[in-house]
């Protein structure tokens, strides 16, 4: 698939098939992720492919945090996490020095590379932001000494969502 088609066809997937993906394919996506540009070539990213039990526990942490806030999208996110067959936790290596803004932008580029790779081989992804609310809890639970920045769900798509509206080009280019 041509890169333009991959970009055009990519969607956030919230319903996955239960089929398991090999760890080799998940790692291949990380390999393409770390090919992303990073500010000053700092490569501030770290990853953990979590087990089903760990993934579901992280979803439960999110549910526990937001159980009294039925308006939060975090509760829906938790159910999507439980439905997804795989999750990759993405960390920032805060030990390399203090340049957080550049590192976060770099990690975003890395995640985008991963998403586009998985799309190119027919897999679906969901870039999860609500896990930021429990980043300390995730790091503590998994025994990782890095800050959790985001999580990426990966699996075979069990839905074909339409493209969500995008702003017109005239709205985003400043003159």
Indicate the multimeric state: single chain
Structural class: alpha+beta
Order of secondary-structure elements? HHEHHEHEHEH
**Mean residue pLDDT:** 93
Estimate the strand proportion: 15-25%
Shape: globular
Q: Which strand order does the major sheet show?
A: 1-2-4-3
Distance between the termini: 35 Å
Tell me the number of helical segments per DSSP (H or I, 4 or more residues long).
Answer: 7
Give the topology.
Layout: H1 3-9, H2 23-33, E1 45-50, H3 52-66, H4 74-83, E2 86-92, H5 100-120, E3 123-128, H6 135-142, E4 147-156, H7 169-172
Antiparallel strand pairs: 1-2, 2-4, 3-4
Describe this structure in words.
Helices cover 43% and strands 17% of the residues. It is an alpha+beta fold and 175 residues long. The mean pLDDT is 93.
Keywords for this entry:
alpha+beta, globular, 175 residues, 4-stranded antiparallel beta sheet
Task: Give a short summary of the structure.
By secondary structure, this protein is of the alpha+beta class.
């Amino acid at each position: 698939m041509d890169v333009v088609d991959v970009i055009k066809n990519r969607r956030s997937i919230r319903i996955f098939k239960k089929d398991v993906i090999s760890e080799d394919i998940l790692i291949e996506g990380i390999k393409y992720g770390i090919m992303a540009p990073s500010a000053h070539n700092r490569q501030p990213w770290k990853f953990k492919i979590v087990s089903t039990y760990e993934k579901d526990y992280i979803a439960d942490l999110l549910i526990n945090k937001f159980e009294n806030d039925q308006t939060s999208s975090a509760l829906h996110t938790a159910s999507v996490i439980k439905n997804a067959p795989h999750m990759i936790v993405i960390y920032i290596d805060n030990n390399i020095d203090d340049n957080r803004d550049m590192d976060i932008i770099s990690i975003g580029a890395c995640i985008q590379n991963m998403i586009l790779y998985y799309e190119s081989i027919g897999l679906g992804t969901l870039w999860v932001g609500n896990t930021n609310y429990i980043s300390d809890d995730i790091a503590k639970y998994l025994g990782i000494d890095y800050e959790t920045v985001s999580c990426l769900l990966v699996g075979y798509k069990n839905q074909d969502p339409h493209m969500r509206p995008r702003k017109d080009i005239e709205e985003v280019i400043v003159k």
